[in-house]
Design a protein that fits this description.
It is a multi-pass membrane protein. The protein is an all-alpha fold. It has 2 domains: 31-63, no CATH class; 79-315, MetI-like (MetI-like fold, Orthogonal Bundle). It is built from 13 helices and no strands. Helix 10 (233-249) runs antiparallel to helix 13 (284-315).
């Protein structure tokens, strides 16, 4: 007879163990926290943008519908906008914006091609990378002062042209030439930042695509068109938009030092016009109206560029 031991109770066969409720609650809490985490992290940035960007923008738009001088603070409807478009200087500024849009592909293609050569490691590419980026660290005032001396009627550039039999050019005094001179200096001084962005985009490029193009016997222009451009479409979109914004909002220093808006107002841009109305003529409401027009121009041009580039990328 075997000794009887104490009976041990166990779960009956066929019965399922009930789920642990505390663990489920912790899982639910964890998933809820994970969903809320991105919003919590984005909240400070959103608050800063709303407080320092969107709210002042709305205040500026509202202020543009008020008067200046004796009508300060009173609603004047669209009078400021009618004054703007009736001002020959502002119309000149808008024409120059159209010129910037036409020259924008050149301002983007230049750093893009240089970045391509650096990526392909042409001889001396390390030196070129530093030399090309150097102008981007210079102040616009310094760049403007340097090129004012270089482009003077009796300056080194005209001396060089005279040595090869070409007559002197009044780079900053001819209304038909001055805006091209200022834009050219701006492109030279700022394309280093776009070059860095393109080089960052090249770091994501699949090198096997270039090898395949080389095996197929593709020329450099064909490789750029059919391999590099489609692969860097998002980078190109970014550079297009940021370059256009820079042209419209970062040329004040050059304009002020090199031409002061002249000759005869031919180098006016909306940014310079806004400063004249606000800083010299004490017409802040009119300056707010010009700022609103500039914002709308940047918005429309930026969206149009993105749409065109996306369509071109899909076609490729």
């Amino acid at each position: 007879m075997s000794p009887a031991g104490p009976a041990t109770a166990g779960p009956a066969e066929g019965t399922a163990t009930p789920p642990a409720r505390p663990a489920r609650r912790r899982t639910r809490r964890g998933s809820r926290s994970e969903r809320l985490a991105p919003f919590v992290l984005l909240a400070p940035a959103v608050l800063v943008i709303v407080a320092l960007r969107l709210w002042p923008l709305l205040l500026g738009v509202n202020f543009s519908f008020t008067g200046d001088g004796d009508r300060n603070g009173t609603s004047v409807g669209f009078d400021n906008y009618l004054t703007l478009f009736g001002d020959p200087l502002f119309r000149t500024a808008l024409r120059n914006v159209g010129l910037l849009v036409l020259l924008l592909p050149v301002a983007v293609a230049l750093p893009g091609l240089l970045a391509t050569f650096i990526y392909l490691k042409v001889p001396g590419h390390r030196l070129y990378r530093g030399v090309y980026f150097f102008p981007a660290v210079l102040s616009p005032v310094i760049v403007g002062a340097i090129f004012t001396l270089l482009l003077a009627v009796d300056g080194p550039v005209n001396t060089l042209l005279g040595s090869i039999g070409l007559g002197p050019v009044d780079w900053l005094g001819d209304p038909d030439v001055a805006i091209f001179a200022v834009v050219g200096v701006h492109v030279w001084a700022t394309f280093g930042m776009a070059l860095v962005v393109f080089l960052a985009g090249f770091s994501t490029l699949d090198a096997s695509l270039l090898d395949a193009a080389k095996v197929d016997g593709a020329s450099l222009p064909q490789t750029i068109r059919h391999v590099i451009v489609p692969s860097l479409s998002r980078t190109i979109q970014f550079v297009f938009v940021t370059t256009m914004i820079g042209m419209l909002t970062s040329m004040f220093g050059l304009l002020f030092v090199m031409t002061s808006g002249g000759p005869s107002g031919s180098t006016y841009l909306p940014e310079y016009y806004i400063w004249i109305q606000q800083g010299r003529l004490n017409q802040p409401a009119l300056a707010s109206a010009a700022s609103t027009v500039l914002f709308l121009i940047m918005l429309v041009v930026g969206l149009a560029q993105i749409g065109i580039l996306r369509r071109a990328a899909k076609e490729d």
